[in-house]
Amino acid sequence: MGKHIRLLAAISPMLAAAGLVGATLLAPTSPAHSQSLGDIMGSAKKVAQAATVSDEEIVVYFGQMSDEMDRQNSLAPANNPYAVRLAKLTQGLDSYDGLDLDIQAYLMDDVNAFAMGDGTVRVYSGLMDAMTDDEVRCVIGHEIGHVKLEHGQKRLKRALQQDAALSVAGTASGGVRQIANSQLGGLVQNVVYAQHSQKAETQSDDYALGFMAANGYNLQGCPSAMDKLAALGGGGGGIALLQTHPDPAKRAKRMRKQIE
Ligand SMILES: [Zn+2]
């Protein structure tokens, strides 16, 4: 695959127009009063700049997003029991499949976890309360699957393409722009917490089983994690991982067939 991926915005006037609206409304330097033709032409130029995003830039953008997440959420200090348990259950897992990993816990009740294209993996303490070590490992493998299968990467590129303001805000550093903090939160919502397709989820489940086998973890942790999610969902609470993922009972059944 080429280093640079030319996105649809370059060839789609309609998408470019959508991006232009975003840039006009959101660019922090935009005056509140009416836009001159020069401003609008400037915005159009920004849309063109956003059209090409290299894989290296994408990793930097993910880094900016994970920094913002860590600022917003309660990262468990190294001596916290959740951090200690997570470090133990992922011992030796400094990297996997070519991705350098930074696995840490958030002290948050949500049953949730995510991974990003820069190798950031965050597991919420609410999920750790509900799951055994092998079940947590399976969720981590599934989230790494989304990264390695580039599900989030495609979404981020699409978001950058559709909202030119995201890629031009802030000051440039090292050739890659700094996305404004005020916009990183929305980007995280659109990219990290968004729902993937059923196909993407199935691929990530398969990836998770491979991850478990490769690391010598108990494969039963995967269907078992799905059982836990199904049971939690039956309680009627708002479980983050259930809101963004397909029916856990079906996923458990499918995975059990694969590891019989
Ligand atoms: Zn998933």
Give the H and E element order: EHHEHHEEEEEHHHHEEHHHHH
Beta content: 5-15%
Chain oligomer state:
single chain
Which geometry do the CA atoms define? globular
**Count of helical stretches:** 13
Output the radius of gyration.
Answer: 20 Å
Helix content: 55-70%
Average residue-wise pLDDT: 80
Q: What's the main sheet like?
A: 3 strands, mixed
Low-confidence stretches: 1-34
Bound molecule types = zinc ion
Number of domains: 2
Structure summarized in a few sentences:
The chain is mainly α.
What does this structure look like?
The protein has 260 residues and is mainly alpha-helical. Helix content is 58%, strand content 10%. It contains 13 helices and 9 strands. The protein has helices at 13-26, 37-50, 55-72, 81-89, 125-130, 133-148, 151-162, 164-168, 181-191, 198-214, 221-234, 240-243, 248-259, and strands at residues 4-6, 52-54, 95-96, 99-100, 102-106, 113-115, 120-124, 172-173, 176-177. A 3-stranded mixed β-sheet has the order 5-7-6, sandwiched between helices. A two-stranded antiparallel sheet has the order 1-2. Strands 3-4 form a two-stranded antiparallel sheet. The radius of gyration is 20 Å and the shape is globular. It starts with a strand and ends with a helix. It binds zinc ion. Residues 142, 146, 196, 201, 204, 245 line the site of zinc ion.
